[in-house]
Amino acid sequence: MMPNFAINADIIYMMNKTLISIVGPTAIGKTALSIKLAQHFNTEILSADSRQFFKEMQIGTAAPTPEELAAAKHHFIHHKSIKDHYNVGAFEKDAINTLDTLFKTHDIVIMVGGSGLYVDAVNKGLDDFPEVASSIRERLNADLKTKGLTHLQEQLELLDTVAYSTIAIDNPHRVIRALEICIGTGKPYSSFLKKGNVKRSFKTITVGLTAERETIYNRINKRVDIMMQEGLLDEVKSLVPFKDLNALNTVGYKELFNYLNDEWSLDFAISEIKKNTRRFAKRQLTWFKKNEGTLWFDYKAPIDEVIKKLNTLY
């Protein structure tokens, strides 16, 4: 049988394509670096930040500004509504399809985002989990309403410390998902995480930005203050009718909902946003540092230094 040279040529062609994936904690400067790299390589950017998908959430998600969006073409920014059902599986499919299209005209594409699960979905593929009884999720959702998220978090910490340390622990949906696997299978959720990665038709180079913890925390605190100055409270007020939607159960929004519900003072709500964002940044670093192949740079590293290193790898 004659070899299929057309298929082989396509495989070889795609293997010469490179995705540069930029990761790191929130407020570290990933957006700025992605734009500089996109301009240098004359290419486009995919966002893998699950909070920036929703068009109603602009200020509180630190989405790219109109000027930043104009500086380089972006994909997956404000392309969905908070009313839409959109999950990591749908994002993986959409992102791979977009990459297939972009790689027809670009040798390099940039991806940027702090949502570890969404980044890994593109780079490594999603994990396969066994089916569990729906009654388990129903019971956990009931526990969430009657006993609160803290109760579920404590339960997860007992059953799977690895998952407790790495998932978005402030997201009830993620906590319940991990717990239902633990309870339904009798095994830790983390034991089902993919041991081997799917084979993508492109090469991925992961660039990580980091800084001393105090610097990261200071940048987070400053960013929250800027968000408030830019009108975050008004943005949250406009979303009160939808506050029970999963998309809005996120840092920066849920705390201000508590203020608007007369449960907290405004100063306390702002301090809680800062605290919860710092906790989120810590979990981000834990997640991203699992990837031993990441090229880590100080957040102040000159762009020429990053480009020089990338030029030796792609």
Automatic annotation (TrEMBL):
Catalytic activity: adenosine(37) in tRNA + dimethylallyl diphosphate = N(6)-dimethylallyladenosine(37) in tRNA + diphosphate
Keyword ATP-binding set for record: yes
Residue numbers binding ATP: 24-31
Residues that coordinate or bind substrate: 26-31
Region (Interaction with substrate tRNA): 49-52
Record's keyword terms, sorted: ATP-binding, Magnesium, Nucleotide-binding, Transferase, tRNA processing
Gene Ontology molecular-function annotations: tRNA dimethylallyltransferase activity
Cofactor: Mg(2+)
SUPFAM superfamilies, per database record: P-loop containing nucleoside triphosphate hydrolases (SSF52540)
Protein's UniProt keywords contain Nucleotide-binding: yes
E.C. no: 2.5.1.75
Pfam families: IPPT
Site (Interaction with substrate tRNA): 115, 137
Its job: Catalyzes the transfer of a dimethylallyl group onto the adenine at position 37 in tRNAs that read codons beginning with uridine, leading to the formation of N6-(dimethylallyl)adenosine (i(6)A).
Oligomer and partners: Monomer.
Record-stated family: Belongs to the IPP transferase family.
Protein name per Swiss-Prot or TrEMBL: tRNA dimethylallyltransferase
Organism whose genome encodes this protein: Flavivirga aquimarina
UniProt lineage: Bacteria, Pseudomonadati, Bacteroidota, Flavobacteriia, Flavobacteriales
